[in-house]
Amino acid sequence: MECPVCGRDCIEDAQDVLARLPDLFSPCDQCSSRVLDKNAPLPGRTYAPPCGCGKRFIDEVFANLYVIYVEEGIFSGKEPLRAVGSPLIHPGVSTVNPPFLPSGSLVLLSPVVTAPAAERIVAEVPEVRGVVRSGDFVPGTVDPALEEAPRTYDLLAGCDVRAGVFPTSAGPLVIYTQQSQVHIEFPRQRNPKIESVERRLEKGLPAVFVDACAGTGTLGLCAALHGVQRVILNDAWYAAAYWSAQNVLVNQKSLDVRDVTMHLSYSEMRGLQVSRDPLLVAEAGGEQALSVFFGDYRKLGGVLPPGPACTVLDLFDKSDLEANRRVMKEWQDRVPGDVFIP
Ligand SMILES: [Zn+2]
Ligand SMILES: [Zn+2]
Question: Is 266 helix (H, G, I), strand (E, B) or coil?
Answer without folding.
Answer: helix
